[in-house]
Amino acid sequence: MSSVIFDCRTDQGTKSSGNPAEIFANWQGENERWLFMSPHDDDIVCGCGLTFISAIQIGVKTFAGVVTNGKMGYCHEEQKETISQIRQEECIESFKAMGLPKENLYFLGFDDGDLNRQAGRRFASSTAVGPILAGAVGLQNSIVWLLRIIRPTRVFVPSLTDLHPDHKFTNSETVMSIYHAQGNIWPELGEPIPEIPALYEYATYSNFITPPTHRIRVSEDLFERKINSILAYRSQEQIELTVQIQRNTGCKEFIREMRFDLFDPDESNKLF
Fold first, then answer.
1. Per-residue b/e over 38-74, b at no fewer than 16 CB within 10 Å?
2. In this predicted model, what pLDDT tens digit does every residue of 135-149 receive, in sequence order?
């Protein structure tokens, strides 16, 4: 029988429950909407696939935003022109295996390995880099739009400490976009979100900057669903190694809650 247990570290020790309302602060019941941001198509399933599957399992409205087009993920030279389409098809298959409705999967289409040049927002021009949306380009342009469309209560991003630059930019640009999305700026991108969502990091290549705050434990069948979803990425020839690492870890996963930490002069003043 499928099962999910959520653990949270507190000042009084570890709290565990199969009821997410007892673990996640400000739980909003049927209004819960979780958005997972993925630098590359396979990062969610590898970094937080059990968390993603658990959200679907407990009935949370779940969404995924794949930031890049995977064009640098080819393992054979003859795939240079086709790898983006191959990976998108594999991605759709993978998320279907995890139980995500296709309409809840968004491809933002930024060039793989080049997010440093595509940060921020600027009006489109003949020399603009990246997908055009509402007459502008840039990661913040697309992510603000996505946040205002989905209106999530919780957002999951790769760790800022990750070695891969695309992962760092997905983290920082999403956090900056949350700030913009809850304000009145750029009205052509949609209505402002009502409040800042809870933020969590997941780990792929690197460790968290501080210890994780939550652990997700699942039954064997849900773990195998994650494994099968990873195996959908057949074009990535190191996938068997990834599966072996996941099997060594087993039926558990870790995330770290982040603070949306705006500068407060009063807090600094208390130091003096």
1. bbbbbbbbbbbbbbbbbbbbeebbbbbbbbbbbbebb
2. 999 999 999 999 999
